[in-house]
Amino acid sequence: MVEKLSETLVSHPKKQAPASSKDACLVLIYPTGPGMGLRYGLADQNVIIGRSPSCQIHIDNASVSRQHARIDRDEAGVYFATDLQSTNGTFVNDVPANQTTMKDGDYLKVGNCIYRFLAGGNIEADYHEVIYNLTIIDALTSCPNKRFFNEFLDREIARSNRHKRPLSVLMIDIDNFKTVNDTMGHLAGDAALKAMATLIRETIRREELFSRFGGEEFAIILPETKIEQALILAEKIRAIVENNQFDFESKKFNITVSIGVATTDGDPPATIDQLIQQSDARLYMAKNSGKNKVVFQSPSP
Q1: I need a surface site. Which of 40, 59, 187, 215 has the fewest CB within 10 A?
Q2: What is the pLDDT of residue 242?
Q3: What is the pTM of this model?
Q4: Among the options 216, 224, 235, 242, which is catalytic?
C-alpha cells in the first residue's frame, strides 16, 4: 500500500586451511556496548565460554548458559568449537557447533553474542581491521552502520547539489518489533533483523547504500533516483518483507515494515539533516496511519 502526501564492507571468512596459530584469539563484535572489541586469547588448549565467573571467557549475558561452549586446540594447533548443551546454541558461521573446525576469520555465535576468530599470520593487523570495521559496520546484519550512512549521504548530497541530480532516501522501520522480542525473545528478534537485512540487500544495486540506522530501523540511499523510481523500490521492499515467512527454532512468524521516502533534485540545495528529517517524518506518518505502508514526499510542481 502506497499513501501519497500534498555497502557490504565487512570481510567475510576466507576459504582456507584450518587455523593453527597459538596466538589465536576471539574478538567480541556484537552486541554493541562497552565490551565490544575486547580480545580474548586462546593460549589454553581447552577454553570454556559461559556465564559462570569460573569460565575462562566469562560473558555476563542472559542469552548465554553458565557453561555454554568449549574451544579446543589439538596437537597440530587446529581449533574446534563445541556446544555444551547450551539453551540457545553455539554456531560457527551459522552452523551448529559440534567439534566444528574454526578457520581464520570465522564467526562464532554464543547465545546472541558474536565473536570473530582470528588466527592468521598477522594477528595485530587482523585485529585492527576488525576494530576498524566495528566503526562502520553493524556486526549482526553486516550492513554499514549509521556513521557510514551519514558519510555516504553527505557525499551524495554534495554531488546532487553541485550537478542538480536526483537523490532519494528511504527510512524503513519494522512494525511492532517489540512484540517479537517480548513474545519470542531477543534471539528471535536478532534472527529477524538479520534475515530481513538479507532480503532487502538483494534488491539494492551496487551504487546504492543499504544500512542499519539503529535498532529496528534501516535506511537506503538512492543516488540518481527520482521519486517515482524510489517509490517502486520502497513498495517492492514492503511487499517482499510482508510476504516472507520468518522462522526461529522452527517457529514461523511474519513481520511488516513502514517506509518513509524523501527526495531532492539539488535545486534548491538540500542538506543531510533535511533529507533525514523528511524521510523520518514520513516514516512515522506511515506508522501512525496504520503501518505496513509507504508514505512519500510529493515531487515539486
Answers
A1: 215
A2: 98
A3: 0.83
A4: 216
